[in-house]
Amino acid sequence: MRKDDGYRNYLVPMVVEQTSRGERAFDIYSRLLKERIVFLGTPVDDQVANLIVAQLLHLESEDPEKDISLYINSPGGMVYAGMAIYDTMQYIKPDVSTMCVGMAMSMGAILLCGGAKGKRYALPNAKVMIHQGSAGFQGTPADIEIHAKEVLSLRRRMAEIIAHHTGQPYEQVEKDIDRDRFMDPGDAKAYGIIDDVIASRTAIESLPGSLPEGEPARLAEAEDGALPEPQA
Fold first, then answer.
1. In this structure, are residues 73 and 96 in contact, taking their beta carbons and an 8 Å threshold?
2. 79-91 vs 141-166: helix axis angle to the nearest 10?
3. Which residue in 52, 113, 134, 137 is deepest, having the highest Cβ count within 10 Å?
4. The domain containing residue 192 runs over which residues?
């Protein structure tokens, strides 16, 4: 078993609903899907990407005009798999609103900033991190050179995506992803990765380009966007 496979073994809660035909049970993720909520709560790999892509395509087929909410709590993962999710988010007709709960790091941060403009959010204690991709190779020197060129190409593409969605200069993004750069929600908002920091479901009507009804509302922030200092 791979080191990161443990999360797949957790018991998935079931939700029981009363219908005209009696009781019907859904796993919690299927129940959220009915509300057009997709949850990414794992590292990103091929299997996870396939599931997320399938859910996005399904929700588009159900209603191409209604927003989809993508909740992200992920440390990142495989770049190719993450790009499959990112490209699908851009491809489908519905706006994909993104919300960071917990963490959105590496590829998770790219998915977070790749949400629809004005509809990218984070909870107050979430953490965002951007950096360049990494990889290890073995084989002949010629093979290693080929793979190294591909890693550099992926780094450039990741920097281009972040620059496009944040409005930051490409050169600045290249500099920032050279090492791990961690951001609090206020920093992520200032950088352009998210549009708002939110904490509750109240006053949602006051948000321009707000999430669908029932989604969280904006955190009342200081004018400088700073968050309160944590207390021990």
1. no
2. 40
3. 113
4. 21-134+178-218
The count of structural domains within the chain is 1
Asked if the structure places residue 168 within a domain, the reply is no
Distance CA 17, CA 34 (A): 13
State residue 199 phi and psi, 5-degree precision. -130, -25
Give residue 26's pLDDT band: very low, low, confident or very high (50, 70, 90): confident
The tokens describing 166, both together, are 């944040």
Judge whether 11 lies within some domain.
no
Distance CA 177, CA 193 (A): 13
Match 């599931």 to its residue by tokens.
51
The pLDDT tens digits for 164-196 are 999 999 999 999 999 999 999 999 999 999 999
**Contact by Cβ (8 Å): 79, 106:** no
Give the residue among 180, 183, 181, 83 at the shortest CA–CA distance from 134: 180
Give 222's pLDDT tier (boundaries 50, 70, 90): very low
CATH number at residue 67: 3.90.226.10
CA distance 43 to 73: 9
Query: Is the residue at 170 inside a domain?
Result: no
CA pseudo-torsion sign 82, 84, 40, 70: positive
Question: Which positions are annotated as active-site residues?
Answer: 106, 131
Position 156 in a domain = no
Beta-carbon contacts of residue 112 (< 8 Å; ≥ 6 apart): 72, 98, 100, 104, 120, 122, 128, 188, 193, 194
